[in-house]
Design goal:
The chain is 42% helix and 12% strand. It is of the alpha/beta class. It folds into two domains: 230 residues, Leucine Aminopeptidase, subunit E, domain 1; 162 residues, CRAL-TRIO lipid binding domain (Phosphatidylinositol Transfer Protein Sec14p). The strands form two sheets. The chain has a six-stranded mixed sheet with strand order 1-6-5-2-4-3, sandwiched between helices. Strands 7-8-9-10-11 form a five-stranded mixed sheet. Strand 10, helix 16 and strand 11 form a beta-alpha-beta unit. Helix 5 runs parallel beside helix 6 and helix 11 packs across helix 13. The longest helix has 21 residues.
Amino acid sequence: MDPLRLMCEVVDIETLTRWSDTSVPNYDVIVDNPNFKPSPFPVDETINKKVILWNGDVTRLNAEAIVNSTNEALNDRNLVSDRILLKAGPGLRKELRTVVKSCRTGEAKMTKGYNLPSRFILHTVGPRYNLRYKTAAESALFSSYRSLLQLLRENKIATIGLSCVHTQRRGYPSYEGAHIAIRTVHRFLEKYGRDIEAVVFVATEEDEAVYRSLLPLYFPRSRDEELFAAFHLPLDVGNADGEPVIAERQIRISGKPTQAPLANDVEESVNINEAFETSVSIGAHAFSKMQGDIDKQRKQKMQRLKGTPVEYFEHQKRYERLLRRAKQVDLSEIEATHCLYQSGFDKCGRAVVVFVAHYFQAHLVDQEKALLYFIDLMDTIVRKKFVVVYLHTLTTKEQQPTVSFLKDIDSMVDSRYRNNLSAIYIIHPTFWSKVLMWYFATFCVSGMKGKVQYIPGLEYLYSRVPVDQLDLPQFVTDFDQQVNFSANSKC
């Protein structure tokens, strides 16, 4: 390749926007929960200055090292790998074939950059994703990212172009993989950031949207964003290194030693983690973390639930089967109706789910697919508190869901749906919609009645959910304006 042409194509890291310099949204967060727990990822301007999100060609980046996500034989055919091998030249192929030879899943190997602007190329193999072996996939993905970052320390590399190791061609869900990637980088920068100048998340157009939505959770740029993140981080944010924690495999230790050791009998401890510079902290790893009696906790949880333990587990298995099926069935027909979707967050930081009854043809829609779509959308949302905005605007009897359909949904979902539902806001209610909801909340679902709120107009909804967090159909806002105009005219 012409060196002059290559220089023209080079992207200088210094010209890219640091995460600390990006604009911060206006978060209107109200903390009214006495059990509120602060975010484990507080605002850190120093770390934020080292992070960059960039949608571009990694082979043009002048980082000291770039990442090539490949397969065990180092000959994977994908867009990024093909581009790296082509632009690096025959020297890279020869080194991979004669020196490196292979790379196991979760490992990382380093080669020269040859004709690329980067000095080094870090090769790693991400896991294939299988829902049955989700835990193993998460651990392997963490290992891949951690191995890459460990090579930075070992070789005193200060800048890296970090391509996505979790790839859709290996079936890895973008959001789940991005969570692991981002928090692993954050934990690494917490410990070893003084030696790192820049970590560039190199993303495709699709992945860029995912990263842009998740980076504020792990790299908050303001106090309000940190509070926002505290509400929306997943329950498992990993250990001190970002490694996924497997609660079921944590060692449970009960009882006390019969006699405390004497001071003279205790030798000075040695930090073997520092001695071996291992990426897994011994004693802090998931397999050696002490925890309370999990069996006792499960028993108490089941006692709070209706039915016998057998019924509870059968219900859970049935729900998980439905969730797996939802991942396999083509639900594009239901999605195209745009009758159910997530739309931002309310002033308490809770996810807002919008249901447009006018778009739901109750007597024409495939109710089985509608149920699967509902579960597929809601499964990640119901892990935390959420609210539902039910738009009854211009809805006929044929369009609104029947009581039997609502009962079917309630019988299929697990307890998270009821426990984490904070409120149902019914917009533009009619007499019959109130009767339907009263009957359903009173006789079908216990504990639902107190969560239903009837809201006559959007202005009352905006006091609960910011305008910029709501994606409403045009006919809803038009109808609301007509109603308000008519009311004002009468006055």
